[in-house]
Amino acid sequence: MAALDPKKFSQVGFIVKDIEESKKHFAALFGCEVPPANPCGSPAAETQYMGQPAPKAQSKLAFFDLVPGVQLELIEPNEEPSTWRQYLNEKGEGIHHIAFNVENTEEAVKACEALGMKVVQRGYYDDRSGQYTYLDGGDIFKCVVELLESFHK
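Above: the chain sequence. Below: its structure as tokens.
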């Protein structure tokens, strides 16, 4: 059985230094409206980074709908420790993660860990309508894998 369903692929996430500039460039590339940038990482998110509470890990997010069910996500992190900040500091701007929708985060985490991935960050959406989990795919998958679970089904 597969750890993740490829039909549930939902997102490619880019880390950027300046979300306002980046979203204008992508909007020009795609010939679409410039999406809003929204803050992410309120205390309600209960963010954990490397197994420790990270209440100040925040970012700005902007989304482009590419094809039905698949988005390009732009992420501008603040200076606090997070997977986003670590990526920007170590690698610069670029593709940070690929994301998949899952029905049961804990089962998906176990399946991914069995393949050698490790949880690096997790939390809830600011409105508590779902949760996200980032797993480091490291040398095996060459990127971070994000699990997205919606609580409104």
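The chain has a mean pLDDT of 95.
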